[in-house]
Every structure is written in structure tokens, then in C-alpha cells.
Amino acid sequence: MKGQNKLFIAIIIALIIGVGIGGVVHMQYPESAEPFSKNIKLLGTVFIRLVQMIIAPLVFTTLVVGIAKMSDIKMIGRVGTKAMLWFISASLMSLFIGLILVNWLEPGHVTKLPIQDVSSADELLKSSKGFSMEDFVKHVVPKSIFEAFATNEVLQIVVFSIMFGVALANMGEEYAQPVIKLFDIVAHAILKMVAYIMWFAPLGVLGAIAAVVAVNGFEIFKVYAIYLRDFFFALGVLWLVLLLVGYLILGNRLFELLKRIKAPLLIAFSTTSSEAVFPKLVEELEQFGCNSRVVSFILPLGYSFNLDGSMMYMTFASIFIAQIYGIEMTIGQQITMLLVLMLTSKGIAGVPRASLVIIVATCSMFGIPPEGIALILPIDHFCDMGRSMTNVLGNALATSAVSKWEGQLENPGVEV
User: Fold this and answer.
1) Please, are residues 87 and 307 in contact by the beta-carbon 8 Å criterion?
2) CA dihedral in degrees (308, 413, 196, 56; nearest 10)?
3) How does pLDDT run across 123-152, given as a tens digit for each residue?
4) Residue 355 within a domain
5) CA–CA separation, 350 and 52 (whole Å)
6) Based on the structure, what is the number of domains in the chain?
7) What are the residues facing 290 on neighbouring strands?
8) This model's pTM is above 0.90
9) Where do the TM regions start and end (predicted)?
10) CB half-sphere exposure, 221, CA atoms < 13 A
């Protein structure tokens, strides 16, 4: 059995054990649920932090090497244009699917959710009030690359890396080659570290799942059953559309890609962090046959601009809150909201609970009580599992598609 399959099975086992342990604690030792959750969650925290530790240097080295090796500025522009066309199209499609299905299913009209204490949303309300174009620009353009590295601001690192890579590409091989070779070695060393860190994933999954189930139990699914059912149905529709487009571009190789990324998908689902699988996704896409230069260029951009699951969730949750409060929005208002979300959501991948922050800001703009976010906070973890998994799928498809369009998708013929 290959290591990839062993890791996948280990994660599945950890997921089941985590649900079981969390359920036992919730039912048998309810008084200990909070401290238990706080302590076992540390397993997930350690795993996430180990991954976060290597994201900044991995993005920087792979992106600089990828661009510098291209050496052809026209190629950089061509690949970037194709990537952005995919990102914009996929984002609009995701937003529209969320908008159409939330209006059709009307989860806010058929559910009777208990009104939550709005104090749970205070932190989000405060963080959303400062959202402005000035903050967006500050989030995108770095004032210090060291600060961007320290805070894992992926988009700022991408901006610096692209400029640095283009500069290297224009310096001539004599000057640039030693630097490119150094960064290439560093990138491969970091990818070697990925293999070690991923074996901590099962423990991270166990800790994250057990913590949530211990505190919330299984009742949380009953209380919000309709909302969760409708949201995951909408995610299923989005998956069908994404996979159909992927099949039209990749053909039967789509199934090979899905086998390759099954572990990253499951880790993203379990830990609610698409960031946690970034290094592993780089490795799997390159083994799938995607050009390493294309992977190192597109994937970091995708983590800021191509969050399909999060995009769909934004329209779904915003209209859901409006439905809960009995606020009827015209088609024109909803289309305007969609376009606003399209613009304001770009480049906020590094913001904690970014989707919720944007939802709060958007609700305020359209006269929907932003305190309504408290209604969905208790189950946001479960929704986040689905949207994180979808974000990973969307970025894997985007990278594979652009590699195919560039004629640089190899078929290594390696068994998965």
C-alpha cells in the first residue's frame, strides 16, 4: 500500500475516533466538555501551526523559481491572464449558484432558529466595521516583506515574489542562475518537510473533530438540520458544475486528479483549513503532471482569488439572514450584492474567518441586521468544513486546467 493511501486511511480512522471520543465526552461527562475541548483542540492547533510555518517560505521560493525559470515575460502574462479569467468566472458562477439556490430553497423561511446571544458576534462586528478600500489595499500591497512573512499574508508575499521573480528573469542567466538554484533547493527541502508534517494530520483531525463534537454534541445537527441540508445541497450542485467543467477540460484524467487530492480534500474538510493542505496540494499537483512553474504561480494566487466554496457561502448566508428577519430583497438588490461580494472578497484569504467578516460588512451595506451572523455562528464550523474542501477542489482544477491550456500537463503514468 502506498504512503498516500496509508495517510488517507489514517485520517479516516482519526475522523471516526474523534467523533466517537467527542460524543462520549458530550454525553457522559458534559461538565468536562469545555476543558476537554480546549485541550484536545491543541492537537489540531499544532498541526495547523506546523503547516503555517512552511507556507510563507514555500510560496516565496516556488513562485520566484517558477517565474524566473519562465524567463519569458509574455508567458507570465499569458498564464496570469488565463488564471484570472478562470478565477473570475468560477467566482461569479459560485456566487450565482448560492444566490439561486438560497432563493429557491428558502432555508430562512422554513426554519425556526433560536435567536442567539449577539455577544458571540461582537468580535466579527468590530472587525468588519473597519473594512474599507484602504484596508483592502494595505492587505494586498506589503510595506515590509518581513512583516508579510511573519503574519503569513499570502497575497502580499505573492506580490513581492512576482516582482522579485520578474526582476531575476530580466537579469540574465549569469547573475540569476545561482539565486534560482538556491531557491530551488530550498523549495525541495521544504517539500520534503511536508512529507513529515502530513503524518501529524491524523492527530490534528482527531483533535479538531473531537473538540467540536464534545461541546456541541449531535444535537447541533438537529437544530440546524434544514440550514445544513440546504447549504450542503448547494455545495453539491457547485461540485457537479466544477467537476463537469473539469471533465470537459481534463477528460478521464479528472478521476486521476481526484484520487491524487483525496487526502488534501479530507484534511481540509476535517480541519476547516484549506491553508493546511497547501504544501501537500503543491506536491500532488506536480505528481499529477502539472508544470511546476504553473503550479507555483497559480496556486498561491488561487488561495487569494479563487475561493469557490467561500464565495458561494457568502451569498447563501447573506440572503439567509435577510430571510430570517423577513427582509425581502429585489432581484436588482441581490445582483448588486453579488457584485459587491465579488469585489470585496478578493484578497482577504489571510483574514481569520474571512467569509463571516465579509458577510457582516455586506449585510450592513444592504440594511440587513449584521447581528444576524450570530444565528449561524454555532454551526459555521460545519459549513466551513464544506467550503474549505470546495476551495481546495476549485484551486486544484484551476491549476490543472491552466496547465492543460498551456500544453504543459504531462502524463507521468504513475499509479495512485
Assistant:
1) no
2) -40
3) 555 555 544 566 667 767 888 989 988 887
4) yes
5) 11
6) 1
7) 409
8) no
9) 7-27, 47-71, 83-105, 154-172, 193-214, 226-250, 319-344, 356-379
10) 8
